[in-house]
Design goal:
The protein is mainly alpha-helical and 158 residues long. The protein is built from nine helices and no strands. The mean pLDDT is 96.
Length: 158
């Protein structure tokens, strides 16, 4: 399955094919084409899972330095920064991810979560809409879009 075929399956009517396509996309996105970079990504994920956020951020910074065009390096650092409540840094890294891979629904959803954490609900809603345009079955993004829109209507949206 190519990335284009997987992206098409995400918006198709077959939910099983969409689930397989999502898994395939994550696998594709985690491969840089450089064994050392891929090993660093795996190491960074393991360090992040141990809750060593500073260590994980340092590893993902090494990935970015070595392979700046590899979108997943930026996305993983964005994730660490989100968990560490560095929302502005995470938003910037999501932006770098999306420059390299505009269909990265994970980065779109993550950026939306950061905007929500900062009380910027209109921006969050816009990003969640983009995530759902790529992957309509993202239930978390659908839920967060509804929350963000509700906050924006109440005047909490900036």
């Amino acid at each position: 399955m190519t990335e284009a075929e997987a992206l098409k399956a995400l918006i198709g009517t077959d939910s099983g094919a969409a689930a397989r396509a999502e898994a395939a996309l994550w696998q594709m996105w985690h491969r840089s084409g450089d064994r050392e970079v891929d090993a660093l990504i795996r190491e960074g994920i393991e360090v992040m899972e141990r809750r060593d956020l500073a260590g994980a951020e340092a590893i993902f910074a090494r990935v970015i330095a070595r392979a700046p065009e590899f979108a997943e390096g930026w996305n993983k650092r964005a994730t660490v920064r989100y968990v560490a409540e560095n929302y502005e840094g995470s938003i910037a890294d999501c932006g770098e991810t999306l420059t390299r891979n505009p269909h990265h629904f994970g980065a779109l959803s993550g950026q939306g979560l950061c905007y929500m954490a900062l009380g910027r609900h209109r921006e969050a809603a816009a990003v969640f809409r983009r995530a759902l345009a790529v992957h309509p079955r993202l239930q978390g993004a659908r839920h967060n879009l509804a929350v963000a829109m509700g906050e924006a209507v109440r005047g909490n949206g900036h």
